[in-house]
Every structure is written in structure tokens, then in C-alpha cells.
């Protein structure tokens, strides 16, 4: 079958591709129906990929879609988001009047650094990190799909830059139920610019592969009939197919050359086929140049280097007058070397043939001149750098300056791979440059941290000035944290800090003082991460005076010092004072570490309101910056904190949302906090089996070396085992937790109250006498810390392991302390233990009072397992109470509750999805489930059901209020 299409002058027809066209059209129809898909079209050069794409794009189905079509090229292969800009460029979203475009609403505005020709113009002081730009581009695509189905078609994807491919992968992993079709065409024999990124895309389960094979003899015969005005002999077509390998480009060139030579498509013409041969494209180009003046070849070569440029610039590079350039273009177009519809080659194979005629040395000189020309006429640095990367040998000094400038732009775009590509050439030319080492390490920190660490170590070795070493050491330390190399970070920072303190003396200048503070805070952050380094930093900072808190570095150091103070567990008052100073408004912007650590320490001291405010600020920071890793960490921390307060439904919502978010991220399996937090909450919900299943999925290497996560993990495992009736294993895990905390020197009784849990297990196992040392240890820590929660836990532990009236008195004391604390679940537990002790002592009336309080309090907290136990004991004591059953709201999963709460507060589905880093479809699915479980018919009913007096609900985040004005 013959399908006619326009293929830039090379082919006037599309032959033999009906099946492939049908497959593409079926995928487009599926996308229009809301079933996303990916088609990877592959084959050797000249096989007809571009022709097939054009025929597909001209089809009826694509007329029902928004189609973004682009072709990647070698010169721009290393640019950051070059493929993305080629796709979205026609939309004009970076124009001065485009800022109010509906396509850039909400999170989509974060895509601008990737789209802008000069990203620094957007916000030169704020380099983008990778995730916000990916997130913004995702929402830009979603906004486009709100208008109708979307097709993203990228030809020559083997030339596509890594960051654009990573975004396509990011988009596809979130594309369920979106009206999206992605089509990538790649050349099989070409080495991709970003092979790993392309492989990740192709490995997606939604991928459909179309590999274009050679044309059949019948197809070649059909093409010959379109070129020769006389009948075509079957033997002629068979021979042409054999010599050309069935490659459509070669077949077309071969047939045209044969007709130009006067050959006939019969047995006599077969001899001519062998003479012209399979290298017809290269031969035809050389023959053309031999027949024409030298300036024709010079113009063709200049076009091959510069691409689609005006005659004046082509002429400047070729040293040919502009009038002659236009004459040469017309001649080359008539010879079907150039496309008829644009000043570029008809096919990349033809471009390669033209470049081959130049020779390697001459081509290198020409590319260097092209780079200089583009620089002189004021083209963006990225265009100039594209030529510089193709110049062999060591770049000249001005070229290295361009590469550095372009790398900085790539960082601003959030394209570290592109920045690294430019900076590698700089480092090759300047192996002794400290700045080149440091800049390249910065570009590699997220994608190749091990290489970044090596570069920073080399930079330190090359640096003699201790002031210059300091920021390098800080950068090294922060990179080490991402690959669990805290000991190396601490060693490096410690050495630099020693040298810096010796150099600067006891009274440094303000600028030097800030540098000292920066190194100290980085040392504290690094040293508090893993157990082997904690003692070192604790000893070092034991006598350090508190900073004033007037600068970002001082605030960060102050926040970290609160962690040390809380770890010591000696003075809650001192810890609170430090944390509040770290958070106090002073016009100094707070980083996420300062917010997170200050909140953590405030919660240990029962200062819940201030702690929650700091966590809310941290979550807003994550939302505003699209810093999803920080957002998930904060969400998990808040879940554990809410659990400690007895706000189980809210804790469940935070924890489950965190787990759902990391499920979409490549780094998700390496993050343990969401699973630990969710398991912790599920135990109190009466689901220890699910909790154990989650904890079994934690696979972080060397987990037992981490200060925070390991102990939360052990505590959760122990409580799950105990809930499942395995007291022996639970006790072993709790004692292991205590030993590990003692090893780290973490003496705060409220961080992980393993000792109180162990006391309960000992008592229930009738081994109270064995609990004395554990209880005495916990009691000593609690009295030293002195908060109501700590004192209440100490009295509870002693009461559970003491018989008779003395034990009842201690449990009564525990109830008094815990009722005055924010720990409602612990209060409910103390009421339960007191009621049980009174019942065992024969005081049924007193028992009923406390057991009823426990059941009511536990149910209001969402601690269903404790509520049911309290009710059973209450009935045994002669009391009456309805069966404890989950309310309809309790049937909601954590994420459903989170989504429903935000919807009830006035947020639209799109705002909720952007806030929680999930898709709109996910929000819709959760809301549908919420309506079904709660028996609701419309969104307006959510508020009255969720906000019942018995269901605690969190404050809606500030972004919800802002969202109301955007809906």
C-alpha cells in the first residue's frame, strides 16, 4: 500500500509502513480515551522513522490531540532540558506576556527555569534543584491535558539530553489514567547521549516497541514505479532492494541516481545498480561537490555545522557573500541535499556525508570558528557551548569561560548532568583548578555523589588557604551524608575546623566568625547522624558558647546545639530556650534543618504548640520549594510526634501520605522514616500484622548505625511483637534499643521510652522483679529531665512493676502527671493500668471509673486496640459500655483522611495533588473512596463529618487559604 506524505524532499511517498501507522494510531486513540502510553520507534539511519512520524502526525487521530513535536540534534545534545525546550518552545511560555497563562498556574510555574532561553533571568540568585523543575514540568503537562489529550513526539531521541529524558520518565511514572501519548524515535546504531535514562524509559511496563525493518522487494518495486515512467522489472526491484538493504533513504537516492544516469528499470539497469552501490548518499554528495564550485561545498559544510541560520551567518562562517549563500542553498535544495521547507538538510545522514567531506582537522577548526561567531553575535552561552563541546583538543581560555557560564545556567535550570558535561571539559583543560573541582562536584552531588566526594577531596588537597578550605569541607560533608559516610565528613570537618580556629584566633572578624559557625554547624549535622561520630561531636561542642542567632549559620548551629542538649536530657528548660531562640523571628531565613531539629527538641520537652508550628513551617518550605525529600522527612517526623500526642488519626494520615509519596520516587526504597512512622501508628490502631509487614520492607544498609531511625525502628518492632503476643522477642528488642541508646549517650527519657515499654512487658510476663534495673534507669533519666510526660512515664513504669497499695499509688501519680501532659495516649494507658490494678485489688467501683476514662480517651485518640482492652476490663468490673467499633471516619486510610481534610478546608483537587506530590487522579480516587465509606453524596458534606467533636483534626496548611483564591 502507498501512503503519500511530505518528507522534506527525500521521499515523496511512504511505502510499506501501513501496519506501523495503524499501531501508532491505536495508541493515540487509547490516549484520547485516557489510557496513557509510550511508543519507542527504532531502526537504523534512513529507515524511515521521520517519514513515519510525519505521516502519523498528519493523521486524523492526532488532529484531536495537542501535539508537541521536536527533533533533537547533536549540537544541543548536552544542554540541560534542550529536548523539553524544543517540545514546549512553540507554546511561547517564556514570553513577557505569558506569565498569566493558565498553563503556568500553580506548581507549573516551577517549570520556567527549564523553559527560559536564559534561565538566570528568571531568578539568578536561586538555582533550581532537580525535583522542583521536574514537578513543575509535570504540572505543565497536566495543565495541557486539562485542555485535551496530549502527544509528545521526540525524533532522534538518541541525541536527547539526560534531564529531558529523566523528565519524560518522571511524567510516565505518574501518567496512569492521563490522556497522554509519548513517542520516541531513536537510531539503533547510534550511542545515546544518556543511555541509562533512555533505558529506564524503555523499561516502563507501558512501553510498546516498534522496530522498523527493511522494505520488501514489493515495496521497492512500488517506489521505483513512482520514479520511473516505464514498467519496472521484478528482477530490477529485487536487485535494488538487495543492494540498498531495503533502507528507504538509500533506495530513494539509488533510484534517483539511476534515473539521472539514464538507466532503465529492467535487466539492463541491474548492472548500473551495482556501480552506484549502497553508499549512494555519500557518493552522490561527493559527486555533487565535484561538479560545483568550491563555495557550494563551503556553504553546505557551514550549514551542517551551524544548522538553521540566516545567509549572513552562514556566509560569515563559510567566507562566502550572502548572495552566493542563497544561490548555493537553491542549488543544494534542487539536488535534494537540503529540505525544501527549511534551511537545513533533508536527512541527518546527508548532513553526516557533507561533514565527512571536510576532514577531521578542518571540521574542528570550523566548529571553533562557529563557536566564536555565535559568541560574537550574542547568542546564548548554551548555543556557543554546544559547538565548543564538539571542538577536539583543549578548549581555549575564552571557551572555558563560556563552558563555566553555561554550566551555571544548567544548574539554574536544575539540570546537573548538563552542567557536569560542560565542567568536565573545563577540568580536563585546568586539572589544577580548585574552582573547577568544586563546581563539578556540585553538579554531580545528586547524581554521582561518590565522584563528587573524590573531586572535593582533590580540591582540598589543592587548597592551601584554610579559609578557602572551609566551604569546600562543608560541601564535602553534606555530600557524604547522602551516601552514609558521616565518619569521613566528621574527620574532614574536624581537621578543617582545628586549622581554622588556630588561624583565626579567639576573636575573629565577623566574616571569619560566620565561616567558623558554618563549619561548626555542618560538623554537628554530620556528627549527629550516625552513632560512631556522635560522641566525637558531643565532646567537641560541650564547652562551646551559644551563638547569638543573628545569621543563618548561627541559627542552624543553635538548632543543632538544642539536639545535643536534648540528648543529654539534663535540662528541658535550657533546651526549650535554645530552640525558641533558633526559631525566633529576626529577619533571618531559616533552613529546613533548623526548623526540623528545633521542632524535634521542643516536642521532647512537651512544648507541642511551638513544635507543631515549626513543623508546619518546614512542610510549607517543602511545598514551596517542591523539596519532596524534605517534605516526606518532615511529614514522617510529624506523624511520630502526633502519635506521641495521641492524635492517632492525624498521625496515620501523615505517615500514610509519606509512604504513598515515596512509592513514586526512585530514592523511595532508601528512606525508612515513612515506613517506621506508619508501622508505629498501625500498632495502636490494632494492626500489628500490617506493621510488621511494613517494617520487613525496611532495607536501609547499616541501619543499626543511625542515631534516630534505628531506635524508632527497634521500638516499633518491639511493640509489634508484643501486640502479637511475643513477649520474649519484644523484651529482647527493647533491651537492645536501650543498650544502643546508652552507647550513643542519648539520655533523654522521652525520645524512645523503651524502659517504660519494657516495664510493661516484664509486668505482664510476671517478671516484675527483673525490671528493677530498667525501671530505676528510666526513673533517674525522667527526674533529671523533669517534664510531666517524663515523670508520668516513670511513675507508670514503677507502678506496673510494684504490687499492692504502693503500686496503685504510683499509678495514681502517673495519671496525675500524664493528664497534665500533652501525651493523651499515654494518659489513656495509665488510666487503664490504674483501673486494672484497682480491679485486681477488689475495688470494682474505682476500677470502673478509670477504665471508662481510659476507653473514652483511647477511642478519642484513635488508639482502638487500647480502647477495646479498656472496655473488656470495664465490663469485667461490672460496668456497661457499648462495643467499641470504628466510626465511619476510622474506616478511612491515612491518605484518604488527609485528602478529605484538605478538601473540607476548601482546596481543589489540583491544589491537593500539588501539595501532596501525587496525581490528580490519585486525589479523585481517594475522594471517591471517602464518599463511599462515609455515605456522602457531595464535597460540601465533608466538613461536618470530619470535624465532629470526637475526631481531632489538624489545622489546614496556609497554602489551602491561598489556594481558595486560585480556584
Q: How would you describe this structure to a colleague?
A:
This protein has 967 residues and is mostly helical. Helix 6 (162-172) links the parallel strand 5 (150-155) and strand 6 (180-187). The protein contains 48 helices and seven strands. The strands form two sheets. The protein has a five-stranded parallel β-sheet, with helices on both faces. It is elongated and about 115 Å long.
What would you say about this model in short?
With 967 residues, the protein is mainly alpha-helical.
Uncertain runs are 1-12, 121-127, 948-967
Number of helices: 48
Distance between the termini: 52 Å
Shape: elongated
Largest sheet: 5 strands, parallel
User: How are the strands of the biggest sheet laid out side by side?
Assistant: 4-5-6-3-7
What is the number of E strands?
A: 7
Q: Helical amount among residues, as a percent range?
A: 55-70%
- Percent of residues in beta strands: under 5%
Radius of gyration: 35 Å
- Helix and strand composition category: mainly alpha
- The overall average pLDDT, rounded, is 87
Amino acid at each position: 500500500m502507498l501512503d503519500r506524505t511530505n518528507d522534506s524532499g527525500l521521499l515523496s511517498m511512504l511505502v510499506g509502513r501501513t501496519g506501523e501507522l495503524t499501531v501508532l494510531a491505536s495508541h493515540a486513540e487509547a490516549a484520547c480515551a485516557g489510557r496513557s502510553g509510550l511508543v519507542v520507534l527504532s531502526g537504523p539511519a534512513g529507515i524511515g522513522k521521520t517519514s513515519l512520524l510525519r505521516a502519523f502526525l498528519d493523521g486524523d487521530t492526532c488532529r484531536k490531540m495537542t501535539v508537541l513535536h521536536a527533533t533533537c540534534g547533536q549540537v544541543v545534545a548536552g544542554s540541560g532540558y534542550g529536548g523539553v525546550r524544543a517540545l514546549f518552545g512553540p507554546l511561547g511560555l517564556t514570553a513577557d506576556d505569558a506569565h498569566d497563562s493558565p498553563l503556568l498556574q500553580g506548581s507549573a510555574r516551577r517549570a520556567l527555569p527549564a523553559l527560559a532561553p536564559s534561565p538566570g533571568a528568571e531568578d539568578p540568585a536561586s538555582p533550581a534543584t532537580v525535583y522542583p523543575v521536574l514537578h513543575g514540568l509535570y504540572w505543565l503537562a497536566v495543565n495541557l491535558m486539562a485542555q485535551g489529550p496530549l502527544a509528545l513526539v521526540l525524533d532522534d531521541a538518541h541525541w536527547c539530553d539526560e534531564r529531558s529524558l529523566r523528565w519524560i520518565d518522571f511524567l510516565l511514572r505518574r501518567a496512569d489514567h492521563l490522556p497522554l501519548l509519548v513517542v520516541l524515535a531513536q537510531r539503533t546504531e547510534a550511542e545515546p547521549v544518556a543511555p541509562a535514562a533512555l533505558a529506564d524509559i524503555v523499561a516502563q511496563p507501558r512501553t510498546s516497541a516498534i522496530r522498523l525493518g527493511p522494505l520488501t522487494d514489493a515495496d521497492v518495486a512500488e517506489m521505483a514505479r513512482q520514479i520511473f515512467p516505464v514498467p519496472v522489472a521484478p528482477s530490477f526491484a529485487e536487485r535494488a532492494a538487495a543492494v540498498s538493504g531495503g533502507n528507504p533513504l538509500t533506495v530513494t537516492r539509488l533510484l534517483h541516481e539511476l534515473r539521472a544516469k539514464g538507466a532503465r528499470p529492467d535487466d539492463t539497469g541491474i548492472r548500473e545498480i551495482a556501480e552506484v552501490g549502497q553508499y549512494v548518499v555519500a557518493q552522490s554528495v561527493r559527486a555533487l561537490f565535484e561538479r560545483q564550485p568550491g563555495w557550494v561545498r563551503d556553504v553546505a559544510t557551514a550549514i551542517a555545522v551551524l544548522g538553521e541560520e540566516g545567509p549572513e551567518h552562514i556566509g560569515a562562517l563559510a567566507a562566502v557573500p550572502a548572495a552566493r549563500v542563497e544561490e548555493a542553498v537553491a542549488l543544494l535544495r534542487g539536488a535534494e541535499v537540503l529540505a525544501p521547507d527549511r534551511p537545513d538538510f533533508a536527512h541527518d545522514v546527508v548532513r553526516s556525508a557533507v561533514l565527512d567531506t571536510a576532514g577531521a582537522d578542518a571540521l574542528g577548526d570550523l566548529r571553533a570558528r562557529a563557536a566564536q561567531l555565535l559568541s560574537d553575535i550574542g547568542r546564548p552561552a548554551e548555543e556557543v557551548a554546544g559547538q565548543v563541546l564538539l571542538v577536539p583538543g583543549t578548549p581555549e581560555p575564552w571557551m572555558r569561560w563560556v563552558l563555566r557560564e553555561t554550566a551555571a545556567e544548567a544548574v539554574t535550570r536544575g539540570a546537573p548532568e548538563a552542567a557536569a558535561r560542560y565542567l568536565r571539559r573545563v577540568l580536563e583543560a585546568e586539572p589544577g583548578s580548585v574552582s573547577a573541582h568544586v563546581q563539578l562536584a556540585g553538579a554531580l552531588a545528586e547524581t554521582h555523589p561518590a565522584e563528587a566526594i573524590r573531586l572535593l577531596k582533590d580540591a582540598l588537597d589543592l587548597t592551601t588557604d584554610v579559609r578557602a578550605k572551609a566551604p569546600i569541607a562543608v560541601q564535602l560533608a553534606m555530600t557524604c551524608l547522602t551516601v552514609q559516610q558521616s565518619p569521613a565528613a566528621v574527620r574532614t570537618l574536624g581537621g578543617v575546623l582545628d586549622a581554622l580556629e588556630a588561624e583565626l584566633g579567639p576573636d575573629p572578624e565577623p566574616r571569619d566568625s560566620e565561616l567558623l559557625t558554618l563549619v561548626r554547624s555542618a560538623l554537628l549535622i554530620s556528627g549527629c547522624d550516625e552513632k560512631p561520630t556522635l560522641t566525637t561531636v558531643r565532646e567537641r561542642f560541650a564547652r562551646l558558647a551559644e551563638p547569638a542567632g543573628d545569621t543563618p549559620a548561627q541559627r542552624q548551629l543553635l538548632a543543632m546545639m538544642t539536639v545535643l542538649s536534648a540528648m543529654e536530657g539534663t535540662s528541658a528548660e535550657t533546651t526549650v530556650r535554645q530552640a525558641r531562640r533558633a526559631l525566633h523571628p529576626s529577619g533571618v531565613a531559616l533552613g529546613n534543618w533548623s526548623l526540623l531539629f528545633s521542632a524535634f527538641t521542643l516536642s521532647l520537652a512537651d512544648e507541642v504548640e511551638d513544635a507543631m508550628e515549626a513543623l508546619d513551617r518546614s512542610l510549607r518550605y517543602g511545598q514551596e520549594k517542591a523539596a519532596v525529600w524534605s517534605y516526606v522527612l518532615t511529614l514522617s517526623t510529624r506523624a511520630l510526634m502526633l502519635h506521641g500526642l495521641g492524635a492517632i488519626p492525624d498521625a496515620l494520615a501523615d505517615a500514610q501520605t509519606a509512604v504513598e509519596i515515596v512509592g513514586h520516587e526512585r530514592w523511595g526504597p532508601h528512606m525508612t522514616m515513612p515506613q517506621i512512622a506508619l508501622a508505629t501508628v498501625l500498632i495502636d490502631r490494632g494492626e500489628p500484622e500490617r506493621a510488621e509487614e511494613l517494617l520487613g520492607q525496611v532495607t536501609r544498609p547499616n541501619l543499626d548505625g543511625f542515631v534516630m531511625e534505628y531506635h524508632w525502628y527497634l521500638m516499633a518492632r518491639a511493640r509489634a511483637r508484643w501486640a502479637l503476643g511475643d513477649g520474649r522477642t519484644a523484651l529482647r528488642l527493647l533491651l537492645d534499643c536501650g543498650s544502643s541508646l546508652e552507647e550513643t549517650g542519648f539520655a533523654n527519657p522521652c525520645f524512645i521510652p523503651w524502659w517504660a515499654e519494657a516495664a510493661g512487658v516484664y509486668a505482664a510476663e510476671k517478671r516484675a522483679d527483673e525490671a528493677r534495673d530498667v525501671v530505676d534507669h528510666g526513673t533517674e533519666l525522667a527526674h533529671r529531665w523533669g517534664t510531666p510526660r517524663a515523670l508520668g512515664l516513670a511513675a507508670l513504669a514503677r507502678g506496673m512493676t510494684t504490687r499492692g497499695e504502693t503500686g496503685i499509688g504510683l499509678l495514681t501519680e502517673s495519671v496525675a502527671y500524664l493528664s497534665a501532659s500533652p501525651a493523651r495516649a499515654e494518659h489513656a494507658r495509665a488510666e487503664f493500668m490504674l483501673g486494672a490494678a484497682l480491679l485486681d485489688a477488689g475495688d470494682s467501683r474505682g476500677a470502673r471509673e478509670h477504665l471508662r476514662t481510659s476507653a473514652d480517651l483511647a477511642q478519642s485518640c484513635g488508639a482502638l486496640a487500647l480502647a477495646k482492652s479498656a472496655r473488656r476490663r470495664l465490663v469485667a468490673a461490672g460496668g456497661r459500655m457499648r462495643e467499641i467499633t470504628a466510626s465511619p471516619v476510622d474506616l478511612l486510610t491515612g491518605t484518604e483522611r488527609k485528602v478529605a481534610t484538605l478538601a473540607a478546608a476548601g482546596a481543589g483537587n489540583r491544589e491537593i495533588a500539588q501539595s501532596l506530590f501525587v496525581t490528580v487522579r490519585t486525589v479523585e480516587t481517594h475522594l471517591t473512596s471517602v464518599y463511599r465509606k462515609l455515605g456522602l453524596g457531595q464535597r460540601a458534606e465533608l466538613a461536618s463529618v470530619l470535624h465532629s467533636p470526637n475526631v481531632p483534626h489538624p489545622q489546614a496548611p496556609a497554602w489551602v487559604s491561598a489556594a481558595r483564591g486560585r480556584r
